[in-house]
Amino acid sequence: MSLNIxxxxxxxxxxxxxxxxxxxxLLGGGGVDGAIHRxxxxxxxxxxxxxxxxxxxxxxxxxxxxxxxxxxIHTPGPVWRGGTHQxxxxxxxxxxxxxxxxxxNKCRSVxxxxxxxxxxxxxxxxxARIAVDTIQTFLTTAKFVENVTMVCFDDRTYHAYVAxxxxxxxxx
Length: 172
Ligand code: AR6
What we know:
This protein has 172 residues and is α/β, with parallel strands linked by helices. It has helices at 31-40, 43-48, 87-104, 124-139, 155-171; strands at residues 2-7, 17-22, 60-63, 71-76, 109-112, 147-152. Strand 5 (109-112), helix 4 and strand 6 form a beta-alpha-beta unit.
């Protein structure tokens, strides 16, 4: 069981499930959400419509359509509002609920983008720490999920996750 950090494009990952940093409408947007919808094709939006959105921190699943991934797990992370609106807890919930849904669907490999640290402005160092801690804890009890990859789009995000993983390992 392992967590890997790579720099790359999540739409290219041939894994059982990729996670989408969505918004609560689940009807698409910019950033990684836009990239995933473009690469999956228009059927993804048609599959999202009947889901009637998703509350912040929760997760819903669809097929991956034209993506190399079998499923897309959609989770709206929190918008950063200074840190006093349960943002840390809600970000933890996004990772945790996405992994639970992957587990329920017998996924062995899952890829995440850095949820909420783009347009939603969650501070990167803290966001990376929450992601790494939640994933590592989950992997200790998972039955199906055995490989989790954090797919970082840019250099700064990649380095933040590498640092968060090495801090996590030192604490163990
Ligand atoms: N692969 C991996 N990571 C990517 C990709 C990609 N192809 N493209 C961008 N990123 P963001 P959020 C990175 O803003 O902060 C949308 O409009 C990006 O560099 O996509 O959770 C939704 O509809 C950053 O590190 O997501 C919501 O309205 C990370 O993905 C809102 O944005 C997350 O950035 C969600 O905001």
